[in-house]
Structure formats: structure tokens, C-alpha cells
């Protein structure tokens, strides 16, 4: 069996982007609950993200969402973040909150609205030049609610054309990552519902177009680690949106619903070359802390990713391959589960301490006074949310 | 084969409650789109509901939601509705939008919060006395998002006690109907997730406690008509919330996603004595017209229920029973589908005309000028929504 | 609205392949029930298939499964079929019933077993040369039951290599169609679980490699018509395996579970150029008549496809496009559903009679004496099944 | 945090029934693979079951299936088992493999067939008197494949009557446990598809009628631990059929697909009084070892149950309740997951050794020579399977 000390050096490679919107309020269509200390400004969101990194060493980047995180001077925001020890990461576009987009944006039948949505992406690319971001992430909330409402095929053709126009605007070092989602907010058909659709589009665009895999965006029962393995094989896995779910796109804390699934996903990431130097895969969170505390929720999330990465690294690859080749089903499975069942928490605590990080980041955060401070400071104003 | 003229008299028995909130704005957690002419007041919602009845003859009642539809004088509202030709129907309680209910209401560990939720239901019962409503419908948005967050078992016990207290407050002619829902807004466990749970509770309460079946509130693949048959057999089907879905609780127009399923449901309703004189089953809609026009959406919905009721009535029950008893699988299925495939629309149009109703209600509505009128009249103010 | 007489000429284009194995016994892992008259030989299966065509005019080809349908002289079988008025269609390979394939065939770690599976496909290609079949259909029953059991990524790489070897053996006029399936018989991962995987493989192989879409092989809630539209757009839809399902791969009669879904699928087929002259799409059935009569079951199936094709052809494409472009959600949906709700059965009966076919093929079959004849003739021997 | 030594005494309470059929061959509708050493007789199955107990101390009973395990002298079989250190447990009836039951057994329209199925259960009760079994387990494979095929409601009524007749035949100390299943082998409707239906029937029967919960028999996404909590609350959880699944009723090794779910289930069992002295809940396995070795598969299964029971016992109930009552979502979840993440394997190994059991039962079995012996001894004859 592989030991923790053997895998410890590889833990240095872990870097997870946290989303700015996780620090704002979120909820369901029924209710958005607020909480004390919630940021009112982009800067406050960045400060919270930097806090997660300070306590974990795992979250050196914060993703932004446009227009939610629009500021006048992104250069200043970048310097502000860097002063706090983090960078600005992926830029997320938004084409689902303008009245014009009620029936579509990049797929709309009206060329004026398509162009408006394309222009929004051009503006995002401009932001990327200022923030130094590599990735433009496109999640399309588009689709239809009723059969016949739209022309499924025609929408694909228009989508391809819109994506082509956006892709061609990218700088040499920039990438387009196209997210897919099974359903919601559209309830009959979604224009990019599955990895196959996202793959077909990015394959047509070119090398710097890749797929974004959100772990909550699949049909019930989907084997997500298979998709990870396949996309890595095809050279097209660009990024992850980590979260977890029991039902639909629940956006719960990653690893909270099925830690063994997270382990299996990370095993395939490592197996397929998606982890460590040379990997092109961005690891992001995309969660909604509807009822739980937000900053500790994010800390818990990045720790969960780290814990399962450590367990996945512990799999004895050679023994596993031998058992697989011998056709020993039970032995292969046991080797695999041995790594999952190994409790790495104490080793990770020691590893953190050796790097000047708190052994128990959640508890350290709770004892730090940061939460009390922001609750006191952030009185008044409008708490940030999805707008 | 049964003919339309044979079943026509039974169509008189059809009466569908429409929900006041269907006329207000609704949407997803991502965006609520408004639309011109949306009501600003309860009275305007009632007026729209009455319009649906005027064009269809199918919707003689409007359900209210408390506190969304709170008015100072429910007696006056009742008279207003009656003047427009409809009545006030089921009263829906709401224990999911107050900050106190973030982690539970009727199930909360804190007795103060439980009492607050119970008191809200007492207030609803007071409203019912004024509106003349028979049914108090309880949809519990309660549950937890994370394993361990709550004590599943303890929550059931508290729920039972809270429901008992509410039930005992009901008047002699009033009923409690308990809705169940698979998930959302809670994403790990829901306190009343399935018909079995609702049934266990209402069976413990007494005769005037019944189950409400929302057609969108089931796990993927669930055979809903089986549940209908079972609840009718157990004497515990109190009401329907009709809508349709492809994925989760999509709240689409009833019959839009799977008309054959609607047919099968209505067949079991009729088979089990849930339709017509003597039935205790209330037929309600519960839909969200997120992107389509609201009043025509409601008209389409009640017409869909009527069309599928007519088809279900057309099933040749005697021939079907013979084929079933003969074990002739294909013949039985063909007799069943024959009724479904029969196009009753022309017959229904004639039937409507014979009653002074428009042959084509949607088109009649669109040509009536009502929509243009409300768009002109309802300028200013705040459009109604889920608050 | 489009009329039946306008679309009638296009009904001539319909041709559906029926599977030889539908006439043999099938069942679940719990029990395979036999029935009187079940074929004992390939010739008897072909005779039953020809009977379906004789009564419907819709099923001019029968698909064969190797080795279930192995005969010494396929040229003779071909002549036998042609004498009965049908041809031999797609050849289906089988790499799931040999003990060697317990843990994989085209993906196996052992090169000897991979070569054995490849050789089986070479043998199928030899058969195709004799039968004049165009398509080699590969359904891979491969996968694993337990995490860790196999190397998901390595299996893909071996699969790609095996498929390449088979593809290169095809004749100029022959095609390889690769079926995908969500799960079963493997219960953790399947090597070709979704259309994306099948597409990625056939895109890598070349022009004569295409995807086979079995309508029962998807995750719950999957929008199948979207996949149809996408594959047609990508030029990669090779064939259909039609059947229907409520839960998993139930293999019920096509159109029996959700006729509206079948309508939507056929609409996208037509919309995307997959129907009629010039289309490369093969329409096949793949069903299990576990409890119902087999020949009438197949007759019912091809009729269901025809009925829904007629309805789909009836959609008023121009009116639909106008409503879609106007953003009129309800009108577009109504135009779409109007066609679905139109009862074409009487028109189709007349159309059939005008071609010398029975107006009511199921009833004609039942009255023909064929069933009684085969029940009398096919005494003794071993009824055909999945072996 | 609770320590292992605190919970160790409670591990003595664990007793799991293993199914005789797990030692025979099983598979899918596509193929049943055999394996060397598979039992040919009931005695050989019992011997294998006893071997599982000998290596684990966890499996003191073997469940029998009638007629698969019919013997002339059940008294002798009982003595044979007792000599090997185990007892005979639950008796499982079978009404799905006789041609008469093709369209139903306890629900059939034909009274002769219903009586035949009832008589079979009477015969099972006779067996129970000889074997000393407490429980008659009824899994009904009944249902329909096509809408209209059967009268859903009438079938329920006949089912209730049949169950009543069987229940009344039970001895004073005997129980009836009614299993439910979402689908398969029926693919449209199943007569006992969910816990609610099973509950409604057993509640009507009386005190000694209880529900059997098979962990693989639910719709996708179903929260099984909720059902456990609910049935314990209602006093109606009679037994478990443990196994695991990714998709449908996959019948994989319990804990293999989602160990965290198994932990949550066992937590609710303990929470609700279903574990330990005084509990009426029988813990059984019901698995199919289609491709893996059978005896080690069963050993792995009972160990998985034990490991997750230990982890569930480790939950710090007091701290959990405090966090729940404080509304601290993250703290409560962390307390819960702490127990799950605790690696109890070394402690359990020591605990086993202290009882004279092998520290590592799977490895001990593999080194024991038992497998080689049965492979040598069990040459010839017909391997046991599902018939």
C-alpha cells in the first residue's frame, strides 16, 4: 500500500478556484435567506475568498461572474486580490437575467439578441485581459419549456455560429470552456444538456475550447468518473465545477452527498493526467450555501477535495493493475476501497501545520474573529446575491 | 366502443380549482420574468381566475395562498369573486418564507417556532371560515440539506404533534390535505417526501385528513396512476395539484409533458370513484407560467384536463375487463389506447357551444380584448409574485 | 393545417427492420415464458417477420443476430427470405454470452480474448457479404460491476483499437453502427454508456461509422429527440433501435409507454433529414415480447411507428416556424400538439386498403389462421430464445 | 467523540442472514456465468453459508427459498445446519416461475391461480414449522407491462384478500414480511412498488405483518434512511434485504456502491431502535454475485455491514443533538461525517482476533483451502441457480 509520506509531495499541486458568488446569498425559487456578514461588494467577496485561502492554502484563485462582479477598474481589483494573497480566476458570463434572453441568447432566433449576447462575451474577454484570467466559462441557461416552442436543431446551428464568433475573439492564451447541464432553468430541452453536446461544439471550435464538467449537472445515475476519463482521453476536459447533489442541481458542498463518488472522480482525474504539473484542468467550486455558513462552507469544500485527492493518490496503482489483469474482481475493488477507507485527516493536519497552516482550518476560522468582524463591519448596504 | 354522446353528461361534473399565484409572476432561482398585465392585487388575480372560468366553464373556484393573498376583508373578497361567477377554494398555508423557518417550521426543534407555524395555520383556518373554503392544504417545504443536520426521526414526531394540533382546530366541515414532495427546497431529506408518509400522517389524524397528490412531486419513473388507485382504495385521496414535468418539479402546464400519463391518471380517478357526484377529490392546478402567457396558459391547462377526462371516460370498460380477464395483453392495451387516441376536440367544441361557451376558448380569449385591457389598466404598482 | 392527403405520399418512404429475436422467447432474469408457435429455426423466424410485412407493408427487412441466427448457407437464407417478400437486414454481433467475455471482449486486458471478439466481428462481416446487409451493429455489453474492477480509461483505449481493426475490415458499401447503453448487464460502468462516447468513437473511425440510438438506453429524463437532432446535425445518426420503457431498458412495444415522445422523436427525424429518400438512417425495432403475443406485438409496433410518423408529418412547419420566431410559446406548442392529437387511424386504414393491405392489420392477422397454423406446425423441437 | 472501546460491546448484537441463493449462480437476462465450486445441492449451499459465519462470526442464519431449496426432510436440513454452527432463517416464497403466474399470482383474476399461489405460501409455512423459521418473506414479482393490461385497483383488492388468507395461516410466533420493489420483472406497474403500499397492506393485516426493505428496490434518488426512520417509527420495519446499486436492482455487494448511504441507513436503524436487544428487525443480504467469487463476496458483504454499523455507533449522539438544536448545520454534519470517516478496520480486526476469529476474514478464507476443496469436490452435477 502507498503511504501518506509518498504522496504528500503531490498535494502541493492542489489549487482550487472558489466562486465569488458563493460568499453572497443564494437560495431556491421559494426563498433566499440572508445571513449576517454577507458581502455587499466585489471587494468583500474577494476578501472572503482570500480568507478561505489563508486558512487552507488550497484556494489561490477566485472566479468572477459578470455582471455580478462588474467593477470600474479590474486592474485595481486584481491588485486588491493579490495584496490579499490570491489571484482572479475564471470569468463567468451571464446571459440569463436580461429580459431579452427570456427565450434564448446565443441561440435566439433574433440576430439582434444573439449579437447582444455575443457582445456580452466580448465584454467578458475584455475583463479577462485586465484580470489576467485564462478561462472564459460559458454556462448557457438556454432551452425551451414546451415541445414545439423552439426549433431544437436550428438552435444548435445558431449556437455553433455564436460560439465560433466568441472563440475567435479570444486572445492567444485564453480558453473557452463550455459547461453543460441536464436541465434547469429550462424544463423541456436544454441547448447544451450533456457532455456529448459540449464536446461536439468545442471539438469544432479548436484547441483552446474545452468542456467544463459541473458534478451536479447530470441525469440520475450518471457515472461521472467515466465522463472524466473520457474527456481526458479526448484531451477536452477544461475545468470542473465541484459541488454535490442528491436529486437535481442541488449545489451542495462538494463531497457532502457522496464522498465515495468524489474519490472515484479524483482517481480518474489522476489516472488520466488531469492532476499536477502539465494538467490543463481547472478545479473550481460552484456551490450554494443556502442555509449553512458561507466561509466555513467553502473551507469545508476545499478540504473535502483535498482529503479525497489524498485518498485517491493512495491507491496502490501497481497492485490494482495486477488484480485487474488477473481478473480478480474482489481484490481489485478491495485495493480501491482500501485507499478510500484510509483516514488521512490526521496526516493532512500535520502536513498543514508543517506549512504554517492551521491543523483544523474550520475550527481555526471560527476562532479567528473574522466572522465576528465582518458581521460587525458589514452593516447596512445591500447584501450580494445573484444580481 | 363508448361514444362521445354517451359520456357527454359526465363532463358536467368537471370542476377545477385554479391557483391565484398562477396569475402572478414566477420563475426559477435564476430569474423571474415579468409580463405586461400581471395582477398587482388579490382582486386582480381573482378577476383573471374568473376569466378562465368565463371562457371554459371549467374553473369555478380559485385557491388562495396565505399570506400572499391576505386581505383585510375576506368576506368582501368572497363577494367580489361571486360577483365574477366563481368561489374561493382551498386555502394554502406558507411556512417557508419567514426567516424563522430557515431550518424548519412544524418540525423545528424550537417550540416557539413550531407554535408560530401552528398559529399561522390557525390564521388560515380563520380565513377559511370567512371564505367558505373546505380545504386547508399544507405543503411543507421542510427538510434538511445535509446528513446529520437534523434528526429525521425526531422531526417526524414533532410533525405529527403539530399536525394533530392543527387538525383539532378545524371546523366540522373542514378538511386538512397534506401534500408530499420528493425534494426541493430541501436537498437531502424532505419531511413529507412521499405518499406513504403523507398517508401515515393523515391516517393517524382522522377522517377529515387526506392526501394531496401533486403530479410533479415524485421520483423519476414513479407510476402516479398507481398511487391514485391506491389512495382512492384507502379512501384518502383528498386533492390533486395538476401540472406536468420532464425532470423535477417543473410545474409546466398539465398534460404538456406527457398527455398519455394524464389520461392514465384520470382513468384511475374515474375507475376508483374519484370523479363525479359523491367524490371527495378536489382537482386543482399548481403551475408556474414562467415564460408563457398566464391566462391562456391556465385556459390550456383546464382544457387539457377536460380533454383527457373525456378520453378516459371513453374507455370501453366492459370490453377492457373482458380482455383483462382473458389475459389478452395486446387487446386490453389496444382498448385502452383506442380511447386515448380518439380525437375528442371537435366534440368538445360542439359541447361547449351548446352551453354558450366559446368553441375554442384560447382563441376566444385572445380575441376578446381582455389581455389588452389588463395590460393597459395594470400599469404601475408591483406585480404579484411569490411574496 | 397540413392534411393527410398532403402527407400520404411520404408514407411510402417508411421501412422498418424487425429483429429475428423478437419472434423467439425472451424474458427477465427471473423467468423466460414460452408461448405456442414460437419458432425453432432461423427460417421460422424469417417466416414470421415476413408475415409482419405481409400484413403491414412496413417491414421489408429482418435483422439477424450472430450466432443466434447462424446457418450453414446464408445465400439460401437470403433467397428464402426474398421468396417470402423480405430481405435480410442489419447483422448484430454478440460478445456477451461466451465464458471468455465475462469481464470484457473488445476491451479485455487479454489480447487473446480481444482478438477472439474481433474475429467474431470478422465472421459477421463475412455473413454480411452473403446476406447483402449494409450494417454491422455492435452493441457492447461490456463494463464493470465494481469500482476498481477495471481500468475505465484503459478499456476505452483498447476499445478504440478493436473498433479500428473491425472498421478496416468492412467492405466499401458496409457500415459499422455503434450502439450505446446506459447500464445493464454491467452495473457500475458501461464502456459505451452514452451517445457522446459512441459519437467520439465513430467520429474517430470514419465516414462509414455511425451511432445507433436505442430509445430505451438512456438515463431517466433524457431528452431523446434532442440527441436525434444533434446526431443528424453531426451527420452521425446511423440507425434506431425502437422500443419503449417506463424504467430501465424495458424493451416494451415502441410507442406503448409514451406515444408523445415517439411523436417528438419522429418529428426531429423528419426535421433533420433522417426520413425519406437520401436518408441514411435505418429504422429498426428491438423489443422483447415477454408476455404478449409476438407477431401481433411486432405488427402493433410497426403500426405505432407509422401512426406517429404520419402525425409528425402533419405538423404545419410554416405556422410552427412563425410562432417560434414570434416567441409565442403557447401557439407554437399548440401547433405541435395539434398534429399529435390528430387521429390518423382511419386515414391510415384507408391508405392501407388502397394498397391492397388490410385496413386493420392486427385484426387481419388474428383472423388469418397463421397463428393457429404455426401453433400446430411448430410442435416439438426447442423454441428459439437468446441462445 | 465516542471511542471504539465504548461501542465494542454493541457489536456483539450483530447477526446477518445470508441467502442460500447467493452461493448458486446468478446473472442477467443476457447470461448467467457459472463458476467452479458452485453448490449443486441445498446442503452445499448451507455449508457455504456456514463457512461465511465461521470466518466472520456475523452470519448465524441462512435464508431459504422455496422451491429452490426444497428438500424431503427439513428437520434433517436443520440439524445439518446446526451441526455446521448456523440456523435456518427466513423462508422466501416464489410465485414468479410457474407458467400459471405469467400474468399474476396473488393478484390474478382467476381464483384457481390465486389459490395455487396461496397454497404455495401455506406450504412455505409448513416448511417454517419444520425449520423453526420466524419469517415468511413475500416478494411479489407481480404487475403489468402495458397500461390497460390489468386493473390496477382490482389487483390491489385481490392482493389484500390473498395476503389476509396467508396471514391467518401463520403460527403464533411467525411473521409475514412483505417486500416492495419499484419495478422488474414488471415494467409498467408493480403491485407492491413502494413502502407505502407494503405498509398499507401490513397495517391492515395485523401486528405480525411487517415491511421488508430491500435497499435496491427504490426509484432513483430515494432517501432510504428516511424510510427506515419512518417504518421504525410506525413499528413496521420487519427486515432488510441488503445489497447495493448504481442504477436499478443491481444486487451488488452491500456497501460497494455507496458506503456513506449504508452508514446513514445504519445510523437511522440504531437511532430508531432497530438494532440490538429488543429489535424486531431481521438483517438479511440479498445479492447476486454475477461475476465475482461468491463466498468471499458474502464475507465482504457482512464485513461491510459490520464496518458501517461500527462507524454509525461511533456517532457522538449528544454532540450531534446539541449541534442540531443550535441550528449549526455545518457542525452537525461534521460530527456525523467524523464517524463515517473514522477508519475502524484495525480495531475490528483486533476485536475479531479477541474472539478467535481471523483478523482478515477474506484473506483467511482465501488461505484456508476451502475454495480449492469445493472446486475439487463439486465436480459433475448441475450447479444451483435460480431454479
TrEMBL record, chains A, B, C, D:
Domain of life of the source: Bacteria
Keyword Metal-binding attributed: yes
Keywords (A to Z) from UniProt: Cytoplasm, Isomerase, Manganese, Metal-binding, Rhamnose metabolism
An annotated Gene Ontology molecular function: isomerase activity
A Pfam family per the record: RhaA
InterPro entries: L-rhamnose_isomerase, Rhamnose_iso-rel, Rhamnose_isomerase, Xyl_isomerase-like_sf
This protein's record includes keyword Cytoplasm: yes
Protein's UniProt name: L-rhamnose isomerase
Organism: Terrabacter carboxydivorans
